[in-house]
Structures are given as structure tokens and as C-alpha cells.
Amino acid sequence: MTDPTNPGTPESTNPGPTNPGPTNPAPTDPASYPPAPPAPAAAPYSTPGAATDEDPGRMLGIVALILAFLVQIAGLIVGIIARKKSKEAGYSNGFATAAIWISIVLMVLGLLLAIALIAGGAALFSGITETCTELGSGTFEVDGVTYECP
Per the record, where are the segments of Pro residues compositional bias (predicted)? Predict the structure, then answer.
């Protein structure tokens, strides 16, 4: 409130507003704002094929080692790829080398087992065929074994 005898001056008994507000109000024109700070510098990109601290074929070598026991041909192929990637990066990949050797050994053992089973089956079949040829057509029991010959 103002004093009627002295217009424009506040009364000394009126405390007035406790917070008169900012002395410099915010500009309403966007052009009057200060410029934005510069953006932070971007991290440098590494070039593809650049040397890093990690062996690029290590994870493939581990996968190849697991595959070497389950699917030997896949373990062999992935092992060769992993070893090649590691060698190009200048690393020695023991997992990939082990996967290659284990795949080869297990494939050879599997091949020998398949040959033995085929040979055993052929011998068994030829034995049955020979017995049926001697006995003729019908059902026969020889030494506790029953033969049904056509």
C-alpha cells in the first residue's frame, strides 16, 4: 500500500514482497540466448583388422573344441577358421589346434568303427546265408540258435 500524501513510495510499515523476483528476466527471443557449449569429442573408431588386445579367433576356438566332440566335421571346419583368424592377428590359438586334432582323430576312429561294424555284419549275414544253403528252406534249430530260411 502507498502513503496517500506521498504517492509512489511504499509505506515503511508495509514489509512488501519477500522475493521480488529476478532482476534480469529470461529473454523471450530465441536469438538472444547464449550459444550452446561445444559437443564432446567422439571416441576414435578402430579400423577393421587392427590389432586389439583380444584374440579374434579365441571364441571360435572354444566353440570348435566343443563341436569336435559332438559333430567332428563341424569342429574341424570351425577349428580351421579359428586358427586362421588367430594366426592373421598374430596369436597362437591352442583351442583351435586341439579342436582340429581331436576332430581328425575322432573321425578316423569313427571310420574304423564303421568299417568294423560293416565287416562284422557282412560276416554274420554270410554265415546265416551259408547255414540256410546247407539246411534248405524252413525253420531249423542248430546248437540252440533258430534259423528261418526262405
Answer: 17-41
Is residue 76 within 8 Å of residue 103, measured between CB atoms? yes
- Total domain count, the chain: 1
Query: What pLDDT shows up at residue 77?
Result: 97
Contact 61, 94 (CB under 8 A): yes
Give the CA distances from residue 60 to residues 11, 49, 73, 140, in Å, rounded to whole numbers and listed in that order: 87, 17, 15, 59
- Alpha carbon distance 3, 116 (integer Å): 121
Burial class (CB in 10 A: 0-12, 13-18, 19+), 21: exposed
Q: What is the pLDDT of residue 146?
A: 83
pLDDT digits (tens, 9 = 90+) for 49-67: 555 578 889 999 999 999 9
Cell numbers of 132, please? 540256410
Q: How far is CA 105 from CA 34, 58, 112, in A?
A: 74, 22, 11
pTM, two decimal places = 0.54
Range of the domain at 72: 58-124
